[in-house]
Amino acid sequence: MKLFEKNQSNKERIIRLIVGLTFCIPFFTHGYTISYLLLGIGGILIFNAISGVCMIYKIFGYSSCKVK
Predict the structure, then answer these.
(1) For 64, what's the count of Cα atoms within 13 Å in the CB-facing half-sphere?
(2) 23 and 39 in contact (C-beta within 8 Å)?
(3) What stretches of 1-68 adopt beta strand conformation (E)?
(4) If residue 60 lies in a helix (H) or strand (E), which one and from where to where?
(5) How confident is the model at residue 64 (pLDDT cuts 50, 70, 90)?
(6) Do 7 and 53 meet the contact criterion of CB atoms below 8 Å apart?
(7) What is the rounded CA–CA span in Å between residue 12 and residue 6?
(8) Calpha distance 33→53 (Å, rounded)
(9) How far apart are CA 21 and CA 38, in angstroms?
(10) pLDDT over threshold 70, residue 34
(11) CA distances from residue 25 to 56, 57, 62 in whole angstroms, order as listed
(12) The Cα angle at residue 17 between residues 16 and 20, in degrees rounded to 5
């Protein structure tokens, strides 16, 4: 088992990217205190979408990719 083996399907990656970008918008528009929390969560989701690797999935041994 590789550490950075892709474990997300393409559909899930697109959804994570859209949600991550949406969470980052309040940081740039409003600057509320909760905006920093949303920016952190959005950044993690964007990283997951770009890399295709979710560490929580790794911990539980789950993969949404098709079987090779």
Answers:
(1) 13
(2) yes
(3) none
(4) helix 55-60
(5) confident
(6) yes
(7) 12
(8) 29
(9) 10
(10) yes
(11) 25, 26, 30
(12) 80
Residue 12: count other Cβ atoms within 10 Å of its Cβ: 17
* pTM higher than the cut 0.85: no
Mean local confidence (pLDDT), 12-40: 91
Residue 49 Cα distances to 27, 28, 29, 42, 44, angstroms: 20, 21, 23, 10, 9
Q: How far apart are the first and last CA of the chain?
A: 14
Rounded Cα–Cα distance for residues 18 and 54 (Å): 16
Sequence length of the chain is: 68
Please report which confidence band the pLDDT of residue 48 belongs to, taking 50, 70 and 90 as the band edges.
Answer: very high
Nearest Cα to Cα of residue 19 among 41, 52, 51: 41
Q: In the structure encoding, which two tokens stand for residue 46, read together?
A: 């964007």
Q: Give yes or no for residue 3 having a pLDDT over 90.
A: no
